[in-house]
Write a structure and sequence with these properties.
Structural class: alpha+beta
Number of strands: 4
Distance between the termini: 10 Å
Helix content: 40-55%
Number of helices: 7
Strand order of the largest sheet: 1-2-3-4
Largest sheet: 4 strands, antiparallel
Number of domains: 1
Shape: flat
């Protein structure tokens, strides 16, 4: 239980980076589907890859992020998040985060919403993803803390 609380604290940093700076959640575009955007999110943190992280956002959100932080600073933030995950989840934390299947849960005009299974070291949760104009992004309503809480 104490470990879960520490993990939740680590996720708070992710939320600060993603939500405070952009007022939205991050996501990713691409043809790979809802699970690919979730994998891209975790991969970008693991690799400290600012470009990959930014490509997880819709264009307007990327521009807004870059109004507050440049790519070098973003890489530093991703490195800090990675270090926190390593501390609370363990070395090679990325291998312990398994992205499962996606299920369509809602449609609203031109946006389709999905829930994507995320298993963190045996604890299952879901992350909401949206599809806009054929590309997938983490939903504005999604919270990474729900995955690690």
């Amino acid at each position: 239980m104490a470990n879960r609380k520490r993990i939740a604290a680590a996720i708070s940093l992710v939320l600060v980076v993603a939500f405070v700076m952009t007022m939205t959640a991050c996501g990713g575009g691409g043809a790979g589907g809802a699970t690919s955007v979730v994998n891209a999110l975790f991969d970008s943190i693991d690799k400290h890859d600012a470009k990959k992280f930014l490509n997880c956002f819709e264009k307007e959100d990327r521009e807004e992020i870059l109004d507050y932080i440049d790519e070098d600073e973003l890489e530093e933030e991703l490195e800090l998040i990675d270090e926190m995950f390593e501390e609370f989840i363990g070395r090679n934390w990325r291998k312990k985060v398994k992205v499962g299947k996606a299920e369509e849960i809602d449609k609203d005009k031109n946006v389709t919403y999905y829930e994507v299974e995320v298993d963190v070291d045996g604890d299952e949760s879901y992350l909401e993803v949206k599809k806009v104009k054929g590309k997938f992004y983490i939903s504005d309503d999604a919270s990474l803390s729900s995955v690690f809480w």
